């Protein structure tokens, strides 16, 4: 077993070192400074300011409506809370697909205005030229393939990608995006064996969500992982805590104290 990789500040080069050393790294989403600092201090290497903020922060039913300006606020907040982890911003739907020029312009905003150290875009080989031009402009890019939620209407719903004949196309997408200069390829809802095969076919590290145990890294949406939401969780989530219960019980206890007149007590009050 090689020495654990534990940089003072995580950079893209370290993620390559993880893969080269046969080690795994972790990514969680974050949308605010306090949660970012907790995950940062817990050793999470990568923080994703996901466009899942559209769902978990704003209450929309998909990622499609969130805007660049909204994502910039969440990204600035995470950058302010993160000291060690690498902060990656999701480029939202409609902000990069039109052209490599549009993708560079949006990526530059996330780096210049919010301090993101990398960005993520959804799409396969059709986005390879976008990635190439972004990387040439100095924007580190994670390529997101498999189930790409921004394309849910084109894909016909939330479903596993790359089964059967589609497997080769997914491998080809991954290779094209690596060749274009993506420093990482993220796979969402892909059969475990296929994701493992992609990780082995690529030099660069892979990150999985619903992609089994053979990717270099893993990512989850933090509210799913910590049990803050109310809905049914996707199969790929492991729930490590039940914050909804903790927070709900605390709020109810506060409400009861206020109703009963037991909060505030003298120690919470000021004398004249
Ligand atoms: N809270 C949250 N968690 C996420 O993981 C997430 C978001 N939001 N928003 C953006 C995308 C959308 N994602 C999702 C959301 C739901 C399923 C889901 O319901 N999956 C089911 C059905 C799979 C199938 O039928 O093949 C599952 O059981 O996994 C999958 C991916 C992942 N991302
Ligand atoms: C689920 C992850 C990969 C994501 O793209 C997001 O949180 O928006
Ligand atoms: Mg996303």
TrEMBL record:
Enzyme Commission no? 2.1.2.11
- How many and how are cofactors bound here? Binds 1 Mg(2+) ion per subunit.
List the SUPFAM superfamilies.
Answer: Phosphoenolpyruvate/pyruvate domain
Query: This protein is called what?
Result: 3-methyl-2-oxobutanoate hydroxymethyltransferase
Q: Which reaction does it catalyse?
A: (6R)-5,10-methylene-5,6,7,8-tetrahydrofolate + 3-methyl-2-oxobutanoate + H2O = 2-dehydropantoate + (6S)-5,6,7,8-tetrahydrofolate
User: In the record, what lineage is assigned to the organism producing the protein?
Assistant: Bacteria, Bacillati, Actinomycetota, Actinomycetes, Micrococcales
Question: Which family, according to UniProt?
Answer: Belongs to the PanB family.
Q: Which CDD domains match?
A: KPHMT-like
Look up and give the organism this protein is from. Answer: Nesterenkonia sandarakina
Cofactor needs = Mg(2+)
- Cite the annotated pathway: Cofactor biosynthesis; (R)-pantothenate biosynthesis; (R)-pantoate from 3-methyl-2-oxobutanoate: step 1/2
């Amino acid at each position: 077993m090689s020495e654990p990789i534990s940089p003072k500040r995580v950079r893209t080069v370290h993620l390559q070192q993880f893969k080269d050393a046969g080690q795994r790294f972790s990514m969680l989403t974050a949308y605010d400074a306090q949660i970012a600092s907790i995950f940062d201090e817990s050793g999470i290497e990568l923080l994703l300011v996901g466009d899942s903020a559209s769902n978990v922060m704003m209450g929309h039913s998909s990622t499609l409506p969130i805007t660049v300006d909204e994502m910039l606020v969440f990204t600035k907040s995470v950058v302010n809370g993160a000291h060690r982890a690498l902060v990656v911003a999701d480029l939202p739907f409609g902000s990069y697909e039109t052209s490599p020029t549009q993708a560079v312009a949006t990526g530059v905003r996330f780096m210049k205005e919010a301090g993101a150290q990398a960005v993520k875009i959804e799409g396969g080989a059709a986005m390879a030229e976008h990635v190439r031009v972004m990387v040439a402009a100095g924007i580190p890019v994670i390529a997101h393939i498999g189930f790409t939620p921004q394309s849910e209407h084109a894909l016909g719903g939330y479903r596993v990608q790359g089964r059967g004949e589609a497997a080769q196309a997914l491998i080809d997408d991954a290779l094209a995006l690596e060749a274009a200069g993506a420093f990482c390829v993220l796979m969402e809802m892909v059969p475990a064996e296929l994701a493992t095969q992609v990780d082995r076919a690529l030099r660069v590290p892979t990150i999985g969500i619903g992609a089994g145990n053979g990717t270099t890294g893993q990512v989850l949406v933090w509210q799913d992982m910590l049990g803050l939401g109310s809905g049914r969780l996707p199969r790929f989530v492991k729930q490590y805590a039940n914050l909804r219960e903790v927070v709900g019980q605390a709020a109810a206890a506060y409400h009861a104290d206020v109703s009963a007149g037991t909060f505030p007590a003298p120690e919470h009050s000021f004398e004249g």
